[in-house]
Write a structure and sequence with these properties.
By secondary structure, the protein is mostly beta strands. It is 1% helix and 44% strand. Strands 33, 36, 37, 39, 44, 45, 46 and 48 form an eight-stranded antiparallel beta sheet that branches. Strands 34-35-38-47-40-41-42-43 form an eight-stranded antiparallel beta sheet, with no helix packed on it. Strands 5, 6, 9, 12, 15, 16 and 18 form a seven-stranded antiparallel beta sheet that branches. β41 and β42 form a beta hairpin. It is elongated, with a radius of gyration of 31 Å.
Length: 658
């Protein structure tokens, strides 16, 4: 986010959101007024009296940023949050050069990688405490590439929040990799820039890293996202306090760390000391799409004690979780590093008993398998319950429900007047119903790139990417029925390109292949061949698009014709039966369909006319059942100066099953 803030001076000051903002003073490189960061963090802008920011980056204050999202990070209040870093804040991968693969050393600034000063980012805010308010709170999450290999060493970056209250004294809270809150490794924080993995699979010392998930290579970590404050930060109504947010390297300037902070607010009372979150995983990824019958889902529950007093292992269970309907427990899957977790088969319930020390978290896990035979759209809903001691009398008198941090259903289940802290963890089940056909209409593909398509979670189609001087990509400028189409502008020098199919993902084999296409006339010779290939690189079928010269007075005097291949009769014309017999200025559909085990039919349709030509009973060169890809190739040499463009859309394949 740009840091240059234009302030219009009206009568020497501007009234903004209930407080007076004065024009920014001229500042040195590495510092500015920090107002954008303060406003992103504060729950109420009227509390802000003044702010300033500085860091060790002399090239644009890149050690902080105001963002609306970054991977698993989303605002907890309003539309933005702030992130602070010992490196460059908000990068997609925290490595040298911010690229992958790269070594996990991050960026460093004035002091060099081993020198002084240490990399540092500091925001200072002067805030006016409202009437009746006695505590300060904020939501925070700490990330570090020093985790796990540098836990317990002098290389220990620290994120600190210091509150100076004239009447209540100075209070301070900090995070580092030794904090008990550190419960996630790279797999739990996708898209944050700290989802890095050692390419060797063994994180130790300095590694080459990328963002490809590896079960043994996680090379960074994070705390849970938790609210901090209350008794840690007492304040007095109507006073002005100073809040200093600081992140700083320790030991050296390598291995970047970062901190999310949002929703800084005042309260008149101390909030609950226990929070619990629950997420559902498929393999190494948080579930974001429907799952299938038979899939194994892993639930991860984090229980955080944000208070200073320990939560003891009291009589009764500290956590209970009844298995959701339509699932079966995976034997032996219940896990907790601390305390005792077990599955009660008679009650279909997970229970956990144990202590949660102050300022620490516990991570629990268990797995279930989705039952078979469920109808598409079935919701598997699950929510656990934490039982805890709110008054330190040795009895668990309070209840906290687990929350899905990625949803807000609008309901206040726990009666605290908030709807975003008690949401069940829901996943949607689909039944794979052996579809008779699947379609790629290119509408959800990125313009200018390759195309891909899945049926629910099964990836069955993708294309190669365009090469320099050619065109083989998704476009929006010309389409048939839906947004986007696929353009080919392919020369011999850019050949071959491919449409790839993985029908094993669908448990099916090919019965028919069809696609809508549009083209115009051309000013020179051109051809494009489509080779239908199997896994042995054998040709199943061949189609040729060829521009042939027609005697006209127009400079565009090459018209398109289509040929299909037969091993006996070789190339056979498939043409439009409309006047002129040429394919031009319209959308056409080409359909290739299996006819028994050894023959194949070709059909050409024109939009608005229906069938315009057929080629029946051509002999297959190889079996249709092992179809794997289409090779696109031009053979004209030299390459045409003006290469004709084709647009392809609404591509459907028919399927059959064993």
């Amino acid at each position: 986010m740009k840091r240059n803030i234009i302030i219009i001076l009206v009568l020497s000051s501007l009234i903004f959101s209930g407080f007076i903002v004065y024009p920014s003073e001229k500042v040195e490189a590495g510092s500015y007024d920090g107002q954008d960061l303060a406003l992103a963090i504060l729950a109420n802008s009227s509390w802000l009296v003044d702010s300033s920011y500085s860091d060790t980056d002399t090239s644009g204050n890149r050690q902080s940023a105001v963002l609306s999202s970054l991977g698993t990070m989303t605002p907890t209040h309003g539309s933005t949050f702030a992130i602070f870093s010992t490196g460059i804040a908000g990068t997609s991968i925290v490595t040298t050069g911010e690229e992958e693969p790269g070594d996990e050393r991050g960026s460093w600034f004035e002091g060099g990688k081993n020198g002084y000063p240490r990399d540092r980012s500091t925001l200072t805010m002067t805030l006016q405490v409202p009437d009746y308010m006695h505590y300060l709170y904020y939501d925070v999450q700490f990330f570090s590439a020093e985790y796990p290999e540098y836990v317990g060493t002098q290389y220990n970056d620290k994120f600190t929040i210091t509150v100076d209250s004239p009447n209540s004294g100075t209070s301070q809270y900090y995070f580092d990799v030794n904090s008990g809150y550190f419960v996630w490794d790279s797999r739990g924080i996708p898209g944050t820039g700290f989802d890095i993995y050692a390419r060797s699979g063994y994180p130790s010392n300095v590694d080459m890293v990328d963002t490809y998930p590896r079960s043994r290579g996680a090379d960074a970590g994070a705390s849970d996202l938790i609210p901090i404050g209350g008794e840690y930060h007492p304040v007095t109504p109507n006073e002005e306090i100073t809040v200093t947010i600081n992140i700083e390297d320790a030991g050296d300037n390598l291995f970047d760390s970062g901190a999310f902070i949002d929703n800084l607010m005042f309260s008149g009372f101390a909030k609950t000391d226990i929070i619990a979150r629950k997420t559902a995983w498929l393999g190494d990824s948080i579930i974001s799409e429907p799952v299938e019958c038979g899939d194994i889902v892993k639930y991860k529950i984090s229980i955080s004690n944000t208070g200073s007093a320990d939560q003891d292992d009291n009589p009764g269970n500290e956590f209970e979780d009844i298995l959701p309907e339509n699932t079966t427990y995976v034997l032996g899957s219940a896990y907790s590093q601390y305390g005792n977790i077990e599955y009660l088969s008679g009650e279909k319930k997970i229970i956990w008993n144990g202590q949660i020390p102050g300022e620490s978290s516990r991570l629990l896990e268990f797995q279930v398998q989705i039952d078979s035979g469920l109808s598409a759209g079935t919701i598997v809903s699950n929510q656990g319950t934490v039982y805890w001691d709110s008054n330190e009398d040795g009895n668990n008198d309070a209840v906290e429900f687990t929350d899905n941090p990625y949803t807000d259903d609008g309901f206040d289940l726990d009666g605290d007047d908030e709807t975003n802290d008690d949401d069940p963890t829901n996943i949607t089940v689909v039944s794979f119903d052996n579809p008779p056909s699947v379609t790629e209409d290119f509408s959800d593909d990125l313009v200018g790139g390759m195309a891909s398509q899945s049926y629910y979670t099964r990836d069955w189609f993708n294309t190669t990417e365009s090469v320099l001087g050619g065109g083989f990509e998704v476009v929006w400028s010309y389409k048939y029925l839906t947004d986007n189409s696929f353009k080919t502008k392919l020369r011999k020098t850019g050949s071959p390109q491919f449409w790839n199919y993985d029908l094993a993902e669908l448990g099916a084999s090919l019965v028919s292949w069809e696609v809508w296409f549009a083209c115009g006339d051309a000013c020179n010779e051109y051809d494009m061949l489509l080779f239908f290939k199997n896994s042995l690189d054998q040709n199943i079928s061949k189609i040729k698009f060829e521009y042939e010269k027609v005697v006209t007075d127009s400079p565009m005097d090459y018209y398109l014709k289509i040929y299909f291949w037969d091993p006996v009769t070789e190339w056979n014309l498939l043409e439009s039966s409309n006047p002129g017999g040429y394919l031009r200025n319209s959308w056409y559909k080409l359909r290739v369909e299996k006819n028994g085990d050894i023959f194949i039919n070709y059909t050409l349709y024109q939009d608005g006319y229906g069938i315009v030509d057929t080629g029946m009973g051509s002999q297959l060169s190889a079996s249709f059942s092992d179809f794997q890809r289409i090779e696109w190739r031009s053979t004209k040499d030299p390459d045409p100066v003006a290469c004709p463009m084709f647009f392809w859309d609404d591509h459907t394949i028919g399927l059959e099953y064993p």
